[in-house]
Amino acid sequence: MEVKVLEHEKNRMKIEFVTQDRTIPNLISKELWNDSSIVVSGYTLKHPQTANVTALIETEKKAVKKVMLDNLASMKKTFKELNTKFKKAVK
């Protein structure tokens, strides 16, 4: 999956995910809402068969880049823990 930053200001970022699959953008959008500085977190898809996913993130206090990087690190940790638990469960 390719990621393009379309717009980047201190408290606002628009990202294009070059994919027709909404799974990753949806996970990121929902996880971002756990941060109290998030004002907007969502994505759009112009047409499900032809368009890439465009996400919009806005923050109130923190820099949007930091919030996004922290969010991705948290998701990575969560999936690593899930991977470990799953491996133990299927032994």
What keyword list fits this structure?
about 90 residues; Gyrase A, domain 2; 2 helices; about 40% helix
Structure, described:
It is a single chain. The chain has 91 residues and is α+β, with helices and mostly antiparallel strands. The chain has a single domain, classed as Gyrase A, domain 2 (2-Layer Sandwich). Helices cover 40% and strands 33% of the residues. The protein is built from two helices and four strands. It has a four-stranded antiparallel sheet with strand order 1-2-4-3. The relative contact order is 0.20.
Instruction: Note the overall shape.
Output: flat
CATH topology: Gyrase A, domain 2
How are the strands of the largest sheet arranged?
Answer: 1-2-4-3
Name the CATH superfamily classification.
RNA polymerase, RBP11-like subunit
Summarize the amount of helix as a percent range.
Answer: 25-40%
For the record, the CATH class is Alpha Beta
Q: First CA to last CA: what distance?
A: 32 Å
What's the count of strands?
4
Please describe the biggest sheet, giving its number of strands, its sense, and whether it closes into a barrel.
4 strands, antiparallel
Instruction: Report the radius of gyration as a whole number of Å.
Output: 15 Å
